[in-house]
């Protein structure tokens, strides 16, 4: 088994087609097929199921896909770590954030980092915090913003910011309110993500501490769909202000502060086994700098220590 075979197999398994993978890899399809077959013969198990329309990974193939992604990511990281010590950082970096931060953070961050390190290719990901955490531990991400869950095995993390959740409704619906109590929030029809989404768990914990039940009328795990349902007036939700900042500014949504506050803490984390490079350190500085510029308008309370920020 070698890196080329792993790379070829991963492309075929992900694209579910020998011909498409051969086109992307720029190798002849018979040569690609021979490499995959040689890998299967070496391991003694079928890795792909062949169909008339393409291929799908077998259970053994699924296991190899997971390991191949990690191995190839580490090989690329090793190459990039060496190349990063050129006069100008280069290589590839992956950065992830929870979906609630994606819209407000990723576009501006990408433009700033491209100005700072134009030779570094940046791969940006937003998703469920649990998924971002898992990918970071696996080494599929180089840096990420995570909910602070106190479970940081395999990670190096630093406090980044805290923010409060607000009650969010359609435009004008909550505009006249100075604020609402948790009991008043519980009286609203709510749309929330399903368990075990971290936002849902935060809300449930806050309600339980005050003897309130959390029974949403709709559960939606896609943030964009959740926000759209609220925008058209179906019900209200609880979100960080940063997740809907633009829609609040335009008047398409309205929000009210909640008392006592429901707060979430976020950390900036990287894999413990991943050696920082000039490129990854530059990305970390850009992340922190950009978050500092957004803190005032979005009501973030910064927790990143200046000594770490400028180190």
Walk me through what this model shows:
This protein is of the alpha/beta class. It has 3 domains: 3-80, Winged helix-like DNA-binding domain superfamily/Winged helix DNA-binding domain (Arc Repressor Mutant, subunit A), CATH 1.10.10; 85-161 and 265-310, D-Maltodextrin-Binding Protein, domain 2 (3-Layer(aba) Sandwich), CATH 3.40.190.10; 163-264, D-Maltodextrin-Binding Protein, domain 2 (3-Layer(aba) Sandwich), CATH 3.40.190. Helix content is 48%, strand content 23%. It has helices spanning 3-15, 18-25, 29-43, 59-83, 99-116, 129-138, 182-187, 198-209, 223-231, 245-250, 278-298, 306-310, and strands spanning 48-50, 55-57, 91-98, 120-127, 143-147, 155-170, 179-181, 191-192, 218-219, 237-240, 253-259, 263-271, 301-302. The strands form 3 sheets. Strands 3, 4, 5, 6, 7, 10, 11, 12 and 13 form a 9-stranded mixed beta sheet that branches. Helix 1 crosses helix 2, helix 1 (3-15) packs across helix 3 and helix 1 (3-15) packs across helix 4. The chain is globular.
Précis, in short:
Helices cover 48% and strands 23% of the residues. The protein is of the alpha/beta class and 311 residues long.
């Amino acid at each position: 088994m070698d890196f080329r075979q792993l790379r070829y197999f991963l492309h075929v398994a992900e694209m579910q087609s020998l011909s498409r993978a051969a086109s992307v890899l720029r190798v002849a399809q018979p040569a690609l097929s021979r490499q995959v077959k040689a890998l299967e013969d070496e391991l003694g198990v079928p890795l792909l199921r062949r169909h008339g329309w393409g291929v799908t990974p077998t259970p053994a193939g699924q296991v190899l896909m997971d390991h191949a992604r990690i191995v190839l990511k580490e090989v690329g990281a090793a190459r990039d770590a060496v190349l990063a010590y050129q006069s100008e950082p280069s290589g590839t970096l992956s950065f992830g954030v929870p979906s609630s931060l994606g819209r407000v953070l990723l576009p501006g961050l990408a433009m700033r980092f491209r100005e700072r390190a134009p030779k570094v290719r940046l791969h940006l990901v937003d998703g469920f915090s649990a998924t971002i955490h898992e990918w970071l531990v696996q080494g599929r991400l180089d840096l990420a913003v995570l909910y602070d869950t106190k479970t940081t095995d395999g990670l190096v993390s630093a406090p980044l910011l805290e923010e409060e959740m607000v009650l969010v409704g359609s435009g004008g619906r909550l505009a006249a309110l100075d604020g609402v109590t948790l009991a008043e929030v519980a009286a609203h029809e709510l749309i929330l993500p399903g368990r075990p989404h971290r936002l849902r768990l935060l809300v449930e914990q806050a309600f339980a501490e005050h003897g309130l039940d959390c029974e949403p009328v709709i559960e939606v795990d896609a943030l964009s769909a959740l926000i759209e349902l609220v925008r058209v007036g179906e019900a209200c939700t609880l979100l960080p202000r940063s997740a809907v900042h633009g829609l609040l500014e335009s008047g398409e949504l309205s929000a009210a502060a909640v008392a006592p506050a429901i707060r979430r803490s976020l950390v900036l984390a990287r894999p413990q086994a991943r050696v920082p490079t000039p490129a990854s350190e530059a990305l970390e500085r850009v992340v922190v700098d950009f978050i500092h510029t957004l803190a005032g308008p979005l009501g973030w309370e910064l927790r990143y220590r200046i000594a770490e920020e400028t180190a």
